[in-house]
Design a protein that fits this description.
The structure holds two protein chains of two kinds. By secondary structure, chain A is of the alpha+beta class. Chain A has five helices and six strands; from the N terminus they run βαβααββαβαβ. Chain A has two domains: about 80 residues, Alpha-Beta Plaits (2-Layer Sandwich); about 70 residues. In chain A, the strands form two sheets. Chain A has a four-stranded antiparallel beta sheet. In chain A, α3 runs antiparallel to α4. The chains are: A alpha+beta, B mainly alpha. The interface between A and B is large, with 64 and 67 residues.
Chain lengths: ~180, ~450
C-alpha cells in the first residue's frame, strides 16, 4: 500500500485545535501543523516540546560577557595600561565600573545574534532555502493539519478522513508521497 | 478561546477576514504605487541627493567647512546625532517594551516603527563617522591589533561606550525587525503571481514554512529579543547622555542626564512615529488598522514622557541654583536669558507646554492636530539638544573666548540631507515591505476586530 499524506484544511485556529484534539484522542499521530500565525495551545496537543532557545541565548550571552571581560582586561589593564587624568588603569576591579557599559553591550550583542543564528539554522530558514509549506494558503488564511499514514499503521487513510469530517474541516486533500 | 472585555475599543475596524488582511497589505506591494508615493519619493530623494553632495564636500574639504570654532567645538553634528538616536528609541519601545507588557495595539504599528528605528540609527551613525574627518579611519574605533604598540582603544571613555552601544543597538534592532519580517515575506511569496517578485520574496523569506515548531521558536525568539532589547534601549541613550554627563562642563555634568535623555528620546521618537504613520495610513489606506485609538495611545505616551522631560528641565534648573556652584548657575541663567534665550524658549514651549494640550481628549484624537504636534515636538527636541550642547559651550570660563555659533551651509545641508535620506529609505520600505506585522495582526483579529467583538457581545446577551 502506498503511503499517503493527508492535509486537513481549517479556516480557524480554534477549529484546527479541535480537529487535532480529536485525532490525537483517537490515537492518530499528527505529523505537523501549518498556520499563518502562531496557534496558541497547539504544542501540547500534538506533542511539541518547549524550545530551548532561551537557554541558548543565555549561554551565548554568558560567553559574550566572559569574552568582553577578558578582552578589556587584556587591552586596557594587561597589554597597555593608560594613565588618564592621573587615574591609571592598574587593576581590573578598580576600573570595572567604567568597563560595565561595554561588557553589557557585548553580552547583549552575543546573546541576541547567537540566539538568532541558532534559530535560523534550527528552523532551516536561511537565505535561498526553498519553501516547504504544503499549500501556499497556509501563509494567508488557512490552517493545515498534516497526517501521514506511514506513521499511523493502525488507521487507514479513509478512517482518518472520516474522523476529520466529524470536525468543522474546510477541505481534505490526500497526496501520495 | 481568549476573549476581550467589550469596553476595550476594537483595534481593527470593520469586518475583516484573514484573507482581507493579506490583501490589504500585500495588494499595495503588488500593484502600482499611489501617486502620493511618487511625489513624496521624488521630493525626499532630491533632498537626499543634496545631502549626499554636502557630505561628500565635507569629507573632501574637511570639517573646517562646519561653523565650529575654538569655543563651540561641538555643535550641530552631535545635536543631530543625539536627535536621530533619540528618534530611533520609539521603535524599540513599541516592539520590545510593549511586547513585554502584552499591549496588543503595538501590533499595527511595530513594523513601521522599527523600520523608523533602523533608518534613524543609520542617520545617527553618520554624524560621528563624518565628524572623524578622516572617515576612512573609522575602523580605528574598534579594538583591532595594529602596528602602534598595539595601541588599544580606551574602554573608560563614554565615546567608546557609544561605539559599542550604537553598533549593538543597530544590529540587534535590525535582526529583531527581520525575524518578524520573515513570515510576512513568506505570505508575499505565496501570494504574488509575478515570477520575478516571487523569486525575490522567496529569497527574503528564507524558506519560511510556518509549521508549529517554527512558530514556537519564533515566539520564544521574539520574547527573548524583546527582553534583552529593553535594557539595551535604556542603556543606549544613557550612554549617549554620558558623553556629556561624564565631562566637567557646567550644564553637562549632571547625574539626571540618563533618565532625562531616555524619556526625551521616547518622547521625540513617538512624535516621529506619529508624523510617519499619519501619512502612511492615508497614502496606503491603512485606516482600518491604524485607528484613532492607536493615535490616541501614542499621544498618551507623548504626554507621559513629555511631562517627565518637563520635570527634568525644572529639576535641572532648580539644582543649578540650589547647588550653589556659580558656574553651574550661570550656565542655566545664560541658557534662559542669554543670547540663546530663543532656543531655550522654543525648547520649553515645544516640549513642556505643548504636550500638555493632549490632556484634552478632543485634541489627542484629532489627527490633523496630532500631525502638527508631532512636528512641534520634534522641533522642540532638536532645540533641546542644541541648547544643552551649544549654550553650555559658547560662554567658556574665559570671557575673552565667549562667542556664538553660526552654522554654515554645509551644517544645514548635511542635516537636511539626513532627513531626506531617512524619508527616502522609509518610503522604499513602505513600498516594498509589509508595513504591518501581518502575522501579529491576524493573531488578534478574532479578539480585537470590531465585527468579532460585536458578535461576541451579542452572544453574551442571549
Amino acid at each position: 500500500m502506498a503511503n499517503k499524506v493527508i492535509y486537513a484544511v481549517y479556516e480557524d485556529p480554534e477549529q484546527l485545535k479541535d480537529g487535532a484534539r480529536k485525532l490525537v484522542s483517537s490515537g492518530v499521530r499528527v505529523k505537523d501543523v501549518f498556520s499563518p500565525f502562531p496557534v496558541h495551545g497547539i504544542d501540547p496537543i500534538i506533542g511539541i516540546k518547549r524550545t530551548r532557545l532561551g537557554i541558548v541565548s543565555f549561554m551565548f550571552g554568558f560567553f559574550g560577557m566572559c569574552l568582553a571581560v577578558i578582552g578589556i582586561w587584556y587591552f586596557n589593564i594587561f597589554d597597555w595600561p593608560m594613565n588618564i587624568g592621573g587615574k591609571p588603569s592598574q587593576a581590573m576591579y578598580k576600573n570595572l565600573p567604567a568597563f560595565i557599559p561595554v561588557i553589557f553591550e557585548f553580552t547583549v550583542l552575543c546573546a541576541a545574534h547567537g540566539m538568532v543564528i541558532t534559530y535560523l539554522i534550527r528552523n532551516k530558514t536561511l537565505p535561498g532555502m526553498p519553501a516547504r509549506n504544503p499549500d501556499p494558503r497556509t501563509t494567508d488564511d488557512k490552517f493545515i493539519i498534516e497526517v501521514r499514514t506511514a506513521e499511523n499503521h493502525g488507521h487507514s487513510a479513509e478512517a482518518i478522513s472520516d474522523l476529520l469530517r466529524t470536525t468543522p474541516v474546510f477541505e481534505i486533500n490526500e497526496r501520495q508521497y | 478561546m481568549h476573549s476581550e472585555a467589550a469596553i476595550r475599543e476594537p483595534l481593527i475596524l470593520g469586518h475583516k477576514t484573514y484573507h482581507d488582511i493579506t490583501n490589504d497589505i500585500v495588494g499595495p506591494i503588488e500593484n502600482k504605487a499611489p501617486r502620493g508615493w511618487y511625489i513624496l519619493f521624488t521630493i525626499s530623494a532630491l533632498i537626499a541627493l543634496y545631502g549626499v553632495g554636502c557630505i561628500l564636500y565635507l569629507i573632501s574639504k574637511g570639517i573646517g567647512t562646519w561653523g565650529l570654532n575654538k569655543t563651540v567645538d561641538w555643535a550641530w553634528d552631535i545635536t543631530n546625532f543625539v536627535w536621530w538616536v533619540g528618534i530611533g528609541h520609539a521603535g524599540t519601545l513599541i516592539s520590545a517594551v510593549l511586547l513585554l507588557f502584552r499591549q496588543k495595539w503595538r501590533m499595527a504599528i511595530n513594523r513601521s516603527a522599527e523600520a523608523m528605528t533602523i533608518f534613524a540609527v543609520i542617520m545617527a551613525g553618520t554624524f560621528p563617522m563624518i565628524h572623524m574627518g578622516r572617515i576612512w579611519m573609522a575602523y580605528w574605533v574598534f579594538p583591532l591589533p595594529n602596528q602602534f604598540g598595539s595601541l588599544w582603544v580606551n574602554f573608560n571613555s563614554p565615546l567608546l561606550w557609544d561605539v559599542f552601544a550604537i553598533s549593538t543597538y543597530f544590529s540587534v534592532s535590525l535582526v529583531f525587525w527581520y525575524i518578524g519580517l520573515i513570515p510576512d515575506f513568506a505570505t508575499i511569496r505565496d501570494k504574488v503571481t509575478r515570477p520575478g517578485m516571487k523569486k525575490v520574496y522567496g529569497i527574503l523569506s528564507f524558506g519560511w514554512t510556518g509549521n508549529a515548531k517554527a512558530w514556537t521558536r519564533f515566539e520564544e525568539v521574539s520574547l527573548v529579543l524583546a527582553g534583552i532589547a529593553t535594557p539595551l534601549v535604556f542603556s543606549v541613550h544613557s550612554v549617549v547622555s554620558m558623553d556629556f554627563a561624564t565631562s566637567v562642563i557646567p550644564g553637562w555634568h549632571t547625574t539626571i542626564f540618563p533618565p532625562y535623555f531616555v524619556s526625551g528620546a521616547v518622547f521625540s521618537g513617538f512624535a516621529m512615529v506619529q508624523t510617519l504613520l499619519l501619512v502612511l495610513r492615508k497614502v496606503m489606506h491603512m485606516e482600518a488598522y491604524i485607528t484613532k485609538k492607536h493615535v490616541e495611545y501614542m499621544n498618551i505616551v507623548i504626554i507621559v514622557t513629555g511631562s517627565i522631560v518637563g520635570v527634568a528641565y525644572i529639576t535641572e534648573l532648580f539644582i543649578s541654583w540650589y547647588s550653589g556652584v556659580e558656574y553651574e548657575s550661570y550656565a542655566f541663567i545664560n541658557r534662559a536669558t542669554g543670547p540663546y534665550w530663543w532656543a531655550y524658549a522654543t525648547m520649553m514651549t515645544c516640549n513642556v507646554v505643548s504636550p500638555q494640550l493632549f490632556w484634552s481628549k478632543k485634541l489627542r484624537t484629532n489627527l490633523a492636530f496630532t500631525f502638527f504636534m508631532s512636528i512641534v515636538v520634534n522641533t522642540g527636541m532638536w532645540f533641546e539638544r542644541f541648547v544643552i550642547i551649544v549654550t553650555s559651550l559658547h560662554r567658556d570660563y574665559l570671557p575673552s573666548s565667549w562667542t556664538m555659533f553660526h552654522p554654515t551651509w554645509v551644517d544645514v545641508g548635511v542635516f537636511l540631507g539626513t532627513i531626506g535620506i531617512f524619508f527616502t529609505l522609509y518610503l522604499l520600505f513602505a513600498r516594498f515591505f509589509p508595513v504591518l506585522a501581518l502575522n501579529e495582526v491576524k493573531s488578534i483579529l478574532k479578539v480585537s476586530g470590531e465585527s468579532y467583538k460585536k458578535e461576541a457581545a451579542n452572544h453574551q446577551h442571549h
